[in-house]
Write a structure and sequence with these properties.
heterodimer, A: Phosphorylase Kinase, domain 1, 3 domains, three-stranded antiparallel β-sheet, elongated
Chain lengths: 323, 118
């Protein structure tokens, strides 16, 4: 009997985890990443002669739950046409029986890596607003993301902000506008054959999950995503030397323990952040007259500077005029 | 309000206010009315010129520089018209330049730009 060395074992493991693309229009190039559900690979679409990303479930899926969830993810993304969501190109089944879908290949960095290169607070907040815009769009189409983390946000080379990994997404309402409720009342997914999220099961990323999501309470609603957005805001503010009070108040309201104390809609959160950026009052931070005056002065620095320059010049000319 | 009108109104107000500062100079206090009228007319001319410039050129730095230039130029003309030995170039041109800068800044930041002709 011959023993295999480590490198041979590694090659075998690699070959086993790589998707079998024989007979498809795709040619494997390399692996881009690995998630809880499966892997993402860079492949070449031989028909259209372009590189795309192919997502396929891991090899071990005996009950077929991951396969259905992957298809559900592809359908959610296909349903949401938005500049902040990677478009799905194709979905199908590989020769080995595993379902897959292909999407636009995004060149860029994950937000948790990209944030280190962003120096200005306002630039970070603009990225955050783009994330809010995408999440708000998904909510308007009754879709919850449920796994919003900096690792699931990609920032492209031209500043485009893309929300990735919709594997835990959930549909809030049916097409007739009725709340979709399944057997255990967890209203998870309306897709044909979609696996239901068992009551009490916990899906998401610790640190970014809303308390009610962490406790496995059902049903969670859009306010769970709002909590995660607050956690992303906190992450973006982490290396700020001093977080302005109004911005901290926005973060605290978004991350309130009780969902009824949070912003109730993503546009409300985005509006407060945009107001902060413009030097306007934010709903999360009631300010006194002095704070209001200080904020007004901050917004009108140039005006005040010019008028002060004029008054000071005049006063100096009067006091030091030649007699 | 369009930019030219904004420049005109600001020019008149700031020009009149600038002229009123002559009250602090006892030696010319008896000529206050004439100084205020002259300064108001100067502000009006500066405001119209800077306002029209803002309609044509949409740039805060250029607007500020143009305002400063017009303010200095008109103030220089006023100082040059004073009797010999009483030109007071520095005392007249410095505040004049700042007033022009304020109008240049305001007309770039505020006021409506007319829609392009079809």
């Amino acid at each position: 009997m011959t023993w295999l060395d480590d490198s041979a074992l590694e090659r075998l493991r690699h070959a086993a985890s790589s998707p079998d693309l024989e007979g498809t229009r795709y040619r494997l190039i390399d692996k881009l990443g690995e998630g809880g559900m499966g892997g993402v690979f860079r492949v070449e679409d031989r028909v259209l002669e372009r590189e795309v990303a192919l997502k396929v479930i891991g090899v071990s899926d005996p009950d077929g739950v991951l396969a259905i969830r992957l298809l559900q993810e592809a359908r959610v993304i296909a349903k949401l046409e938005h500049p902040g969501i990677v478009p799905v190109h194709d979905a199908g089944t590989l020769p080995d029986g595993r379902p897959y879908y292909t999407m636009k290949l995004v060149q860029g960095k994950r937000l948790d890596e990209h944030a280190k290169d962003v120096k200005g607070l306002s630039d970070k907040l603009r990225i955050f607003l783009r994330i809010c815009d995408t999440v708000g769009f998904a909510h308007a189409h009754h879709v919850l993301h449920r796994d919003l983390t900096p690792a699931n946000v990609m920032v492209g080379p031209f500043g485009e902000v893309l929300l990735m990994d919709w594997g835990l997404s959930k549909l809030l309402y049916g097409s007739a506008g009725r709340k979709v409720a399944d057997r255990d009342g967890s209203n998870s997914g309306k897709f044909a054959g979609a696996p239901t999220t068992a009551h009490g099961s916990v899906l998401g990323t610790p640190g970014y999950m809303a308390p009610e999501q962490r406790r496995g309470e059902c049903p969670v609603d859009q306010r769970a995503d709002i909590f995660s957005l607050g956690a992303i805001l906190e992450f973006l503010l982490n290396d700020a030397s001093a977080v302005p009070r109004a911005l901290d108040a926005i973060r605290r309201q978004a991350m309130a323990e009780d969902p009824s104390h949070r912003y109730q809609r993503v546009p409300d959160l985005a509006s407060d952040v945009a107001h902060f950026l413009d030097g306007l009052a934010v709903s999360a931070y009631p300010e006194g007259p002095l704070a209001r005056l200080w904020r007004w002065a901050g917004r009108n620095r140039a005006w005040i500077g010019l008028l002060l320059a004029y008054v000071i010049t005049r006063v100096l000319l009067i006091f030091f005029r030649p007699h | 309000m369009n930019k030219a009108l904004l420049g005109l109104i600001l020019g008149v107000i700031l020009g009149a206010f600038d002229g009123l500062s002559a009250w602090f100079y006892p030696e010319v206090r008896n000529q206050l009315l004439g100084i205020v009228i002259g300064s108001t007319v100067k502000g009006l001319i500066a405001g119209i010129l800077i306002g029209f410039f803002a309609r044509k050129v949409n740039s805060l730095p250029l607007g500020v520089v143009f305002g400063l230039g017009i303010g200095l130029l008109l103030a220089f003309a006023v100082a040059a018209m004073q009797p010999p030995g009483q030109h007071h170039y520095f005392e007249i041109m410095l505040p004049g330049g700042i007033v022009g800068t304020i109008i240049g800044y305001a007309t770039q930041r505020f006021g409506r730009t007319p829609a392009p002709a079809r």
